[in-house]
Each structure stands twice: as structure tokens, then as C-alpha cells.
Amino acid sequence: MRKELKAQIIEKVAAQLAENPNFYLADLTGLNAEHTAELRRACFEKNIKLEVVKNTLLHKAMMSLDNKEIEALYPTLEGNTAIMFTSVPSAPAKVIKEYGTKYGNPTLKSAFLQDCAYVGAEQLGILLNIKSHDELIGDIIGLLQSPIRRVISALEDSKKEAE
């Protein structure tokens, strides 16, 4: 591969990492063409962008971000590596679990979500339950509304008793 092409790939991957702060690194080793195509289709349906890139180029792209937390992912850049970019933090974890159970791969190497690094396949259970920013805001609004509803209900009950 020519040096210019490598530089272009590093630049492209670095731009994608900057644009998509949530990504997973997975190992697709052992998936045949049919299963890989099925995995890619599932990723497309869930708005997950799946790309395979050389580890050295990905490492250089990650280094260009100058993020200390991402450095925890460097040791996982061995063997076959696919990047899964997402806007919904738990979506790739669900795909990895579904297809990992079905075909034995992909397996989780690591993930970088909401400025936190998750390293190792044992982190998959945690990643399955991570909520997006919008889901968290919805939960907070729900919690805030609950006491207000109780107060309104109590006021309505006391009004009915007074009548």
C-alpha cells in the first residue's frame, strides 16, 4: 500500500472517530462470506457503520485524536479488527451478542462510549445496558414527573373529600 493511500485512510478513520464518539472494536475472524454479509445487513438496519481497517492505520488514527482514555484500546488492536460506529451506544453490543451466540463471532475486543473505554469481551453485558443520552434525559424527566403527579393526585383527593 502506498504511503499516500495510508495517509488518506488514517485521515478518513480519524475524521470518523472524531465525528462518531461511540464505537466498538470487534473480531470477525471465522465468519464466512454469507455470515459476514448477514452481519453487515443487520448493522445497516440498525444504523451501525461497520468497517474493517488495518490495526496499524487504526492505531495511528486513534493517536491523532490525542485522547488519553482511547489509549486503553491500543492493546486490543491485534488480529482481525472491525470498527462499528454508532449513535445508539448499545446497538452494536446487541448485534455482537446476537451474532456471537449464533455463529461464535463477532466477539467484542473493546469499545469507546461516552468518553469511557471498555476493554475485553466480558464488558459486553455492561454495554448491552448502556442508555443513550436521550434515554437518560427521558428517565430523568420521568423521575421528576413522578412526585409532581403524586402531589396533584393528593390535591385532587383532598378536594374530593372536602366536597
Task: Report what the structure shows.
Strand 4 and strand 5 (116-119) form a beta hairpin. A five-stranded antiparallel sheet has the order 2-3-1-4-5. Helix content is 53%, strand content 15%. It starts with a helix and ends with a helix. The protein has two domains: 3-130, 2-Layer Sandwich (Alpha-Beta Plaits), CATH 3.30.70; 131-163. The protein is of the alpha+beta class. Helix 1 (3-19) packs across helix 3.
Radius of gyration: 21 Å
CA-based shape: elongated
Percent of residues in beta strands: 5-15%
Total strands: 5
- Helix amount: 40-55%
Summarize this structure briefly.
The chain has 163 residues and is an alpha+beta fold. It has six helices and five strands.
What's the arrangement of secondary structure elements?
Elements (H helix, E strand, L loop, with lengths): L2 H17 L3 E5 L5 H13 L3 E4 L2 H9 L18 E4 L5 H13 L3 E7 L2 E4 L4 H5 L4 H30 L1
Antiparallel strand pairs: 1-3, 1-4, 2-3, 4-5
Write out key terms for the chains shown.
Alpha-Beta Plaits, five-stranded antiparallel β-sheet, elongated, 6 helices, alpha+beta, 2 domains
